[in-house]
């Protein structure tokens, strides 16, 4: 079976899921290739997305919610990306002849559906990396979707997607999160870990200043945001605070973490749940991560700490904390460490 994994570099979660899927598919002796042929066409959307998050986050959130309820906007968006697919991806299809397209971004899902119109035997699967389903993810030609939570099944059902085409596998994460190596932690025993996604987004200085008051070791992960790391390094921090960039051994760090603090990206939420560590959500991208926040709260896998951060930190630090035990128990219930492998197995049934 020939698998083509199509993603776009709008956030790092889509790429993380794509790598986890590639690992699982290769493990079942499938041929796997990555497709980044839409990156150029998405350059405008990518730039507008990050510009809006920086300068007009509330307006971005309003537009995101409006798009979720607008059939007209969805139709225009779909037709545009289907046309892009027809003009840009035909040669890619002819060269590789994939059996299945795994789309970890909705733009890629729509674009490859343009090819499916003329090649109906091609199978297309949408890989959801958030905890809700925006209307722009809806593609009538998609053969299946993968989701994490039961609420997402209802999200897709409201668009008319039959439930038998929805696979409740979970969000694909790297196999290293299932059994991180048992070795000494990289920085400190049981640290509070501050995350901002792979791009290091959010009010880091304000949050880190609060965490520095907790009288506990803190590791602030800036991801690929070297500018943020440099800015934080200009301040004088207690010895208990460590500032780092991208961490390759994130499964190991989360495994040894005492608490995780940060934004509720879908892939991050899945990795934290598998790591069995209490999650305090302090900031979020308007729109999709607001929905992630609400559903993590609904399933009691995290707490909201944007107002009383230190209160939650002190409540969750003790090993015998009832709230700590409750969150970890819910994470055990909902963690799906084998999601990528389960998706790969489903592909064999298409």
Question: What's the alpha carbon Rg, rounded to whole Å?
Answer: 20 Å
Helical stretch tally: 15
Helix content: 40-55%
Q: How many β-strand runs? A: 12
* SSE pattern, N- to C-terminal: EHEHHHHEHEEHEEHEHEHEHEHEHHH
Number of domains: 2
* Gross morphology: globular
Mean pLDDT comes to 91
Beta-strand fraction estimate: 5-15%
Low-confidence stretches: none
Intertermini distance: 11 Å
The CATH class designation of the largest domain is Alpha Beta
Structural class, by secondary structure, is alpha/beta
Largest beta-sheet details: 6 strands, parallel
What do we call the CATH homologous superfamily of the largest domain?
Glycogen Phosphorylase B
The CATH topology of the largest domain comes to Rossmann fold
**CATH-derived architecture of the largest domain:** 3-Layer(aba) Sandwich
Side-by-side strand order of the widest sheet: 2-1-3-4-5-6
Keywords: Glycosyltransferase, Transferase
GO molecular function, one term: hexosyltransferase activity
Main location: membrane
Domain Glycosyl transferase family 28 C-terminal: 209-291
What does this structure look like?
The strands form two sheets. Strands 2-1-3-4-5-6 form a six-stranded parallel β-sheet, with helices on both faces. The model has no long low-confidence stretch (mean pLDDT 91). It has helices spanning 13-27, 43-55, 57-69, 71-88, 90-96, 106-116, 150-157, 204-211, 226-233, 250-255, 266-275, 288-298, 309-316, 322-334, 339-347; strands spanning 2-6, 31-35, 100-103, 123-127, 144-147, 166-168, 192-195, 218-221, 241-244, 259-262, 279-281, 303-304. The protein is of the alpha/beta class. Pfam families: Glyco_tran_28_C, MGDG_synth. Keywords: Glycosyltransferase, Transferase. Belongs to the glycosyltransferase 28 family. One of its GO terms (biological process) is glycolipid biosynthetic process.
């Amino acid at each position: 079976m020939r698998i083509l994994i199509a993603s776009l570099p709008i956030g790092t979660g889509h790429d993380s899921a794509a790598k986890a899927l590639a690992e699982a598919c290769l493990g079942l002796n499938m041929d796997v290739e990555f497709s980044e042929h839409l990156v150029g066409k998405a350059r405008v959307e990518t730039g507008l997305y990050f510009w809006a998050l920086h300068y007009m986050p509330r307006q971005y959130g309003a537009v995101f919610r409006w798009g979720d309820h607008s059939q007209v906007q969805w139709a225009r968006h779909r037709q545009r990306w289907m046309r892009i697919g027809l003009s840009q991806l035909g040669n890619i299809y002819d060269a590789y002849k994939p059996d299945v397209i795994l789309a970890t971004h909705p733009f890629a899902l729509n674009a490859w559906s343009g090819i499916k119109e003329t090649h109906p035997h091609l199978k297309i699967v949408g890989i959801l990396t958030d905890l809700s389903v925006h209307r722009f993810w809806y593609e009538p030609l998609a053969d299946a979707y993968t989701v994490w939570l039961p609420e997402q099944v209802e999200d897709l059902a409201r668009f008319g997607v039959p439930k038998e085409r929805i696979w409740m596998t979970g969000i694909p994460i790297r196999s290293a999160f299932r059994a991180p190596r048992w070795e000494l932690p990289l920085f400190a025993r049981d640290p509070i870990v501050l995350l901002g996604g792979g791009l290091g987004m959010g009010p880091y200085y304000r949050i880190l200043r609060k965490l520095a008051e907790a009288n506990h070791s803190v590791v602030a992960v800036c991801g690929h945001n070297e500018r943020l790391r440099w800015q934080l390094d200009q301040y004088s921090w207690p010895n208990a605070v460590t500032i780092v960039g991208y961490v390759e051994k994130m499964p190991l760090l989360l495994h040894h973490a005492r608490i995780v603090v940060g934004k509720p990206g879908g892939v991050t939420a899945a990795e934290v749940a598998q790591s069995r560590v209490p999650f305090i959500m302090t900031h979020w991208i308007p729109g999709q991560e607001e929905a992630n926040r609400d559903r993590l709260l609904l399933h009691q896998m995290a707490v909201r700490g944007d107002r009383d951060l230190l209160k939650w930190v002190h409540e969750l630090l003790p090993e015998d904390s009832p709230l700590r035990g409750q969150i970890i128990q819910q994470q055990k219930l909902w963690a799906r460490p084998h999601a990528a492998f389960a998706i790969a197995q489903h592909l064999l049934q298409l």
